[in-house]
Amino acid sequence: MFQEEASANCLNIVTTATEDSAFQRKGHSARVLSPEEAEKLANDKVLVSEFKQLKLEREAQKNWDLFYKRNSTNFFKDRHWTTREFQELKACREFADQKLTILEAGCGVGNCLFPLLEEDLNIFAYACDFSPRAVEYVKKNALYSTERCKVFQCDLTKDDLLDNIPADSVDVVTLIFVLSAVHPDKMHLVLRNIYKVLKPGKCVLFRDYGLYDHAMLRFKSSNKLGENFYVRQDGTRSYFFTVEFLSQLFKAEGYEQVVNEYVQRETVNRKEDLRVPRVFLQGKFQKPFSET
Prior knowledge:
Blueprint: H1 4-10, E1 24-27, H2 35-43, H3 50-58, H4 60-71, H5 82-85, H6 88-91, E2 100-105, H7 113-119, E3 123-129, H8 132-140, E4 149-153, E5 170-176, H9 187-197, E6 198-209, H10 214-218, E7 224-226, E8 229-231, E9 237-239, H11 243-252, E10 256-269, E11 274-286
Parallel strand pairs: 2-3, 2-5, 3-4, 5-6
Antiparallel strand pairs: 1-10, 6-11, 7-8, 8-9, 10-11
């Protein structure tokens, strides 16, 4: 359940720069706002009512299921950049042909999963998603094979991953544009759940929305749920992370921080001569070799 490309679609932005050629820089400093952007955020003080927020939480799964009902498998682009951005998907092997076990937490319809399985024949993947409809789309994909993949429906905030995955058995967990869809008060439950199935010394690979991403600045005040937390028109929600918040979140659940930085990019609409600033947060967080 991720919406990186969805944001561009909802904003009516035509992305003409490719993932490889687009301007990109990484660092620990947040994007600097223009005076107009700073004023807009300062004026966005009214929050969605508590009644509506509780309703959104209750209906979170239904809203994601409706999202996939409307968009089928056609909404997101396949992600062919994961092995470039996350070298651990290859480097964590102890020998060349070692079979890796990965978990894609929040797999959507398989836009990250299937490119990985195609690129690397020595991967077995567990994959789960909040939406039962998304899981069914994965199972119907021509590339899906039970010999290489096990997919299942899971609410990562409450359904125990140990029901489907052995403890301490996963080499790499990908958490890509997933945690932002979870209420901030429940994010720690996701990380705690993942911790149980990750092998000691292995990493969670994280990428999600960063503070002051263009999508955040386009929200109206009537869509604000809390600090850096917003709801889209379709009822799905999005949180925008700071490096400080993400660091505290992982460390509180026992992970060690390896990398945690902003990725700043520009999406270009050449037809309208428009440059749009995108901000993501990218990180690697390791489960310690031994408990202290």
